[in-house]
Design a protein that fits this description.
This protein is α/β, with parallel strands linked by helices. It contains 16 helices and 13 strands. 47% of the residues lie in helices and 13% in strands.
Amino acid sequence: MSLSNSVGRALEISLRGADELLPQDEWVRKLQRSEATGTPLRIKFGLDPTAPDIHLGHTVVFNKMRQLQDLGHTVIPLIGDFTTTIGDPSGRNSTRPPLTREQIEANAATYFDQLRLVLNVDIAEVRYNSEWSDPLGARGMIQLAAKYTVARMMERDDFNRRFKGGQSISVHEFLYPLMQGYDSVALKSDLELGGTDQKFNLLVGRHLQQEYGQEPQCILTMPLLEGLDGVEKMSKSKNNYIGISEDANTMFAKVLSISDDLMWRWYTLLSFQSLEQIAALKAEIEGGRNPKDAKVALAKEITTRFHSAAAADAAEQDFINRSKGGVPDEIPEVSLSGAPLGIAQLLKQANLAPSTSEGNRLIDGGGVRIDSAVVSDKALKLPAGSYVVQVGKRKFARVTLS
């Protein structure tokens, strides 16, 4: 198929880092029609506000939306304020508890400020699926359910696995993919984005659009980003994440902590550099340039995106100072009483450790310093005075003890 330069470029951008684009030939035809008519395509991504904070793993899909938005298409961040009350069963081995309306509203309220860091929200079509889901009512829900079979629903891996394992599946969980699919009908979407764990739900959207007489959407799935450990997907529960609202110094240092192999994966999925620029940089590294140079460049790009270029420069200098054993210019000031105070208790009260037992574990690992000296005695009690306390490479506090 002969493609115009603009359509070929749009296809290349669509495929960058993607897991699957289905069906690709249909997406090409949509792009060609858009070019011929000057009508932007409608690109949807659903966000269930199950937690208030967004991490870099979430931005893999946001980045793709931004790339397509920059081509002139209409991106639709869809806040799933209705579907979140059901609870997404994707990848679950048990029924997921739904959130209350108050929890959903509190989480959704924080999404906009964070979305602005990636998308141009001012020209995006931000929607809430309660707009059409609440008016659907019981009759509409039953009519919708009639458009999909139980046999098709049981083809879904997690449902099939739970059924065979004798684990419960609540009937309301079948409604989640149906309602997500109905969102595509309501929005008349041309393309829906999601993680690889959302493929089934995205395909339900295609099916329902056909049932309602619409041209079916294409689907674009993006891989799940590995976290700092390079093994598990990025997740707050696994503590291998970088939150996009974290301070610049922490964000910069965390990016530098990833492995050299993982760095290239992050370049593909998180960087806004072209694939040609990344390939050239990789060739330089293979030719003998220090891999740390590429990692610093990535850390600065990501930190700049969510903070500023000046903050990224300052974070780089802060990291250099710390690596030389220096103390950052700005660290938390903490005032405590109760001298003499046990070191583990001090770590807990200064919010440098979540508990005294964790404080003792950190001391055993050689991860605690007072005024640059490593602490090895868990029985140490500190008299009144002022101390610079360091835990690991990134946690500092200036503690005044009385």
